[in-house]
UniProtKB/TrEMBL annotation:
Pathway: Nucleoside biosynthesis; alpha-ribazole biosynthesis; alpha-ribazole from 5,6-dimethylbenzimidazole: step 1/2. GO terms for molecular function: nicotinate-nucleotide-dimethylbenzimidazole phosphoribosyltransferase activity. The active site is at residue 319. This is Nicotinate-nucleotide--dimethylbenzimidazole phosphoribosyltransferase. Catalyzes the synthesis of alpha-ribazole-5'-phosphate from nicotinate mononucleotide (NAMN) and 5,6-dimethylbenzimidazole (DMB). Its EC number is 2.4.2.21. It is an enzyme of class 2 (transferase). Keywords: Cobalamin biosynthesis, Glycosyltransferase, Transferase. The lineage of its organism: Bacteria, Pseudomonadati, Pseudomonadota, Gammaproteobacteria, Thiotrichales. It catalyses: 5,6-dimethylbenzimidazole + nicotinate beta-D-ribonucleotide = alpha-ribazole 5'-phosphate + nicotinate + H(+). Pfam families: DBI_PRT (PF02277). Belongs to the CobT family. The keyword Glycosyltransferase applies.
Length: 353
């Protein structure tokens, strides 16, 4: 038995029900009509139970952006050229991307990992070079990855979570990879056995005619890999995924096994979350969903996870940006939970009904 298979078998950590009960009871004691803080109450209870703590705390947030290129770009499926993936890695390193601005404001730890760009980048301070290959293969011609490459990518995500687990109170995986809305659409359609026409969208900004072309490309890929649709999820990930998507799957599996709360971002990240949940049911107990992006496939994937995202801001960026935007809400839910007085402390009558 190799170490990958051993690790994969490790169970997902069970969520602490005692702390859930304690947090629910505390919410009933706080000086407000029960339920009046709406979803902020559920959030605080969820974070308290995931952290197994009476004082949930989100001071230390670990954000990792996984970047990689996609072979399906040979079919012309994005409004932007493939070289933008590498260019954005440079931008992450110099602090100019949206996620840099947000991570700085949150005082979050921000890692950037190159999991496999076509461009061989020089050593860039602040970027972890874990290039598996020069992008994935075109899944219209064959599997996107070899089995070994897929495992390598998963282990990169696993190890990133473990690298700072002692300090991580919340983990966010972001992605950068031109063409990856096509990859996520193909993978999610295969996993959910649904029509890719219900998921496909503009990504970075395709017009209607180009979206139609993107759909025919994805349909071709799904036809080519049709024999794997009844097979296991890891094979689907290997056939239709991307390096950064597989790395996010590994990170989510790692969080669920170790008991680290995860805040999920947009369409591509949520497709990785769905993949992790299908590989190991129960992973999703560790997930909180930040937002619903404008990419149509995101709603389909969120629904498949029974997810109720906190925000709907028509964002469609990725990089972990939607999740980062939601962190202040989570922090405020915790602050209210921890800091408000109880009826007893404030000597206020609780009311009878
Ligand atoms: C400058 C720039 C920065 C980005 N940051 C995230 N994405 C997002 O857009 C890409 C997916 O869209 P598509 O499948 O249409 O290529 C991914 O890289 C995703 O992270 C970006 C895209 C661009 C152009
Ligand atoms: O939903 C997302 O995260 C998204 C949508 C379009 C392009 N990139 C990311």
């Amino acid at each position: 038995m190799n170490s990958f298979a051993e690790w994969l078998k490790k169970p997902v950590k069970l969520v602490d029900k005692t702390h859930e009960q304690k947090a629910l009871a505390r919410q009933q004691q706080l000086t407000k009509p029960p339920g009046s803080l709406g979803q902020l109450e559920n959030l605080a209870v969820k974070i308290a139970s995931l952290q197994a703590s009476e004082i949930p705390d989100l001071t230390h947030v670990h954000i990792t952006v996984y970047a990689a290129d996609h072979g399906v770009m040979a079919e012309g499926v994005s409004a932007f050229p493939q070289s933008v993936t590498a260019a954005m890695i440079r931008n992450f390193a110099s602090g100019g991307a949206a996620i840099n601005v947000l991570a700085q404001e949150l005082t979050a730890k921000l890692d950037v990992i190159n999991v496999g760009t076509v461009d061989t980048l020089e050593d860039i301070p602040g970027v972890l070079d874990k290039r598996i290959d020069a992008g994935t293969a075109n899944f219209c011609d064959g599997p996107a990855m070899t089995e070994h490459q897929c495992q390598q990518a998963i282990l990169i995500g696993r190890d990133n979570v473990l690298s700072d687990i002692e300090n991580t109170q919340l983990y966010i995986a972001g992605e950068m990879g031109i063409g990856n809305t096509s990859t996520a659409t193909a993978l999610a359609s295969a996993i959910l056995k649904c029509d890719p026409a219900d998921l496909v969208g503009p990504g970075t900004g395709l017009d209607l005619q180009s979206i139609q072309h993107k759909l025919t490309v994805i349909q071709r890929a799904l036809k080519l890999h049709a024999d794997k649709l009844e097979g296991d999820i890891l094979t689907l990930l290997q056939s239709l995924g991307g390096f950064e998507i597989a790395a996010m799957v590994g990170a989510y599996l790692s969080c669920a096994k170790q008991g680290v709360p995860v805040l999920i971002d947009g369409f591509i990240s949520t497709t990785a979350a769905l993949t992790a949940e299908k590989i190991q049911p129960g992973c999703k107990n560790w997930f909180i969903y930040s937002h619903q992006s404008a990419e149509p496939g995101h709603k389909v994937v969120l629904d498949a996870l029974d997810a109720k995202p906190l925000l709907k801001l028509d964002m469609r960026l990725g990089e972990g940006s939607g999740a980062a935007v939601a962190v202040p809400l989570l922090r405020q839910a915790c602050l209210l939970h921890n800091g408000m007085a109880t009826f007893e402390q404030a000597n206020i009558s609780k009311g009878d009904k």
